[in-house]
Amino acid sequence: IGIGGIRETEVVLDISSQVARLLQAKGVKVNLTRSSEIDLDLPPRVAMANKIRATAFVSIHANASRNVRRDVNGIETFYFSGAKGYRLASYIQKELLRASPGSPDRGVRKGRFFVIRRTVMPAVLVEAGFLTGRFDGPLLATERHRRNLSLAIARGILKYLKELN
């Protein structure tokens, strides 16, 4: 829960749904691991992606500082391994920073999150900003900013997919 009571699930469900619609409009087949406020454990998410042999896996989140430090802000994108995972993360990170001028660039980083470690396809985990951050929190609460982030993530994914063809 962030500034003004905004919840991560509200932010990420909105962004994820918009990304799905944007990609579908471009002819990309999209499977969401959840489309409503349900608690879905991590192993079923990974199993679903692996079963359908997805081309890429993108997990969208909003960060929070543990000590509610309002000075901690920024966008970061994690990948587990491989050149393809790194490229997917890099495309998305670059587009997100373009869509959110002033957001600190926390970089493209290696991570060991379950969903990117256990998927067999290139996978990334996006942290679209800090709900608890003085800069990010109020932005994430706005529909306009979430729309801009959605467009950015979709652009990054499309650039990655274009590279595969």
Précis, in short:
This protein is α/β, with parallel strands linked by helices and 165 residues long. Helices cover 46% and strands 16% of the residues.
Summarize the structure in words.
The protein has 165 residues and is α/β, with parallel strands linked by helices. The chain contains six helices and four strands. A four-stranded mixed sheet has the order 1-4-2-3. Strand 2 (75-79), helix 3 and strand 3 form a beta-alpha-beta unit. The radius of gyration is 15 Å and the shape is globular. The model has no long low-confidence stretch (mean pLDDT 94).
Mean pLDDT over the residues: 94
Following the backbone from N to C, one meets helices and strands in this order, namely HHEEHEHEHH
* Poorly predicted ranges: none
What percentage of the residues does DSSP assign to strands (E)? 15-25%
Largest sheet: 4 strands, mixed
Topology (elements, then pairings):
Layout: H1 8-25, H2 42-51, E1 57-63, E2 75-79, H3 83-99, E3 105-110, H4 114-117, E4 123-130, H5 136-140, H6 143-164
Parallel strand pairs: 1-4, 2-3
Antiparallel strand pairs: 2-4
Helix pairs in contact: 1-6, 3-6
Feature tags:
globular, 16% strand, alpha/beta, 165 residues, 4-stranded mixed sheet, 6 helices
